[in-house]
């Protein structure tokens, strides 16, 4: 028997079990993609910040040429939510200054120094709401007191409700909001390089809260 014929017979023999077994079963990991959890009506309750899914971003103009972004993480705080009477809702959050991050390792280090935010002396920045004014379906203007660099001043944030769902892992209701606003850093004693780096700072906070209990 020639080597060529032997190889053909061997290949046919190996193929028989596969043909008899039919199509191979899909591997265990090749399951149907998970569906996003369905949206639910937000519940009136006390909530705590989910620090793993909350970010505080800031933006300044660099030389009037480019918009430069940075981010803070490790946010903590609480939300007392009343969907039927949103004006009664209140929020209080704290952000660790040392959590600041940018695309420049050198700049990140400078921002936490005494010349800028001075994380050693002022380790936290905080916001505590004082009034919420509904402006539409799921939107509002939130007035509050913002403390940065040891200075407290009034700040108003535009707030938008972004969704509510039951976390499939913790089985607790999660709610999300996005807040935007501006402030002048010089009013908080952080005026280095103004106006080469803009005095006006834009803020975007994407916040997730999980129902307590």
Any idea what the CATH superfamily is called?
Lipid/polyisoprenoid-binding, YceI-like
Strand order of the largest sheet: 1-4-5-6-7-8-9-10
If you average the pLDDT, what whole number results?
89
The gyration radius over C-alpha positions equals 27 Å
CATH top level class name: Mainly Beta
General shape:
globular
CATH names the topology as Lipocalin
Reported for the largest beta sheet, the result is: 8 strands, antiparallel, barrel
Label the structural class. mainly beta
Helix amount = 10-25%
Terminal Cα separation, in Å?
Answer: 78 Å
Brief characterization of the structure:
The chain is mainly beta and 213 residues long. The longest helix is centred in the first third of the chain and has 19 residues.
Structure, described:
- By secondary structure, the chain is mainly beta.
- It has one domain (45-211): Lipid/polyisoprenoid-binding, YceI-like (Lipocalin, Beta Barrel).
- Helices cover 12% and strands 45% of the residues.
- It has 2 helices and 10 strands; from the N terminus they run H-E-E-E-E-E-H-E-E-E-E-E.
- It has helices at 3-21, 105-111, and strands spanning 45-49, 55-62, 66-72, 76-81, 90-96, 124-136, 139-148, 151-166, 173-184, 200-211.
- Strands 1-4-5-6-7-8-9-10 form an 8-stranded antiparallel β-barrel.
- The longest helix is centred in the N-terminal third of the chain and has 19 residues, at 3-21.
- It is globular.
- Residues 8-21 have low confidence and may be disordered.
